[in-house]
């Protein structure tokens, strides 16, 4: 995603949150003893939830250069464990962009550590990062 798209999504999400806050404040002011939280989720489309939770792991290699793109649900410590995993695979990050707005997103350009010359395939790297993020099974 480019910066303009991210900014647009941020503005939309902020507006949505402000509307939810306003709605809850109106319920409180109306004297409701029990807040009806179900209406908060009525507006969320099932596809929207699915899109936010669908993990994406892509790995491309050219000689000793590797491009990695990850987008998945965030969890505490995911960034650190991902960096540790890349280091263990013998990849040194040269450039990296990270976003933790809704989910965890990371785009990284890596080079192969010549001291740890491991010949892992793109699929091996992808599966290792997939398991590191807490997903069981195999990434498609």
Notes on the structure:
The protein has helices spanning 3-29, 38-42, 46-53, 78-88, 122-132; strands spanning 56-62, 65-72, 91-99, 104-112. With 140 residues, the chain is of the alpha+beta class. The protein has a four-stranded antiparallel β-sheet with strand order 1-2-4-3, with helices on one face. Strand 1 (56-62) and strand 2 form a beta hairpin. The longest helix is centred in the N-terminal third of the chain and has 27 residues, at 3-29.
Assign the structural class, choosing from mainly alpha, mainly beta, alpha/beta, alpha+beta, or little secondary structure.
alpha+beta
**Sheet of most strands:** 4 strands, antiparallel
Query: Which residues sit in consecutive blocks of at least 5 with pLDDT less than 50?
Result: none
Distance between the termini: 21 Å
Percent strand: 15-25%
How many β strands by DSSP?
4
CATH architect. name of the largest domain: 2-Layer Sandwich
Keywords:
2 domains, 4-stranded antiparallel sheet, Plant bHLH transcription factor ACT-like domain-containing protein, nucleus, alpha+beta, 140 residues, Alpha-Beta Plaits, 5 helices
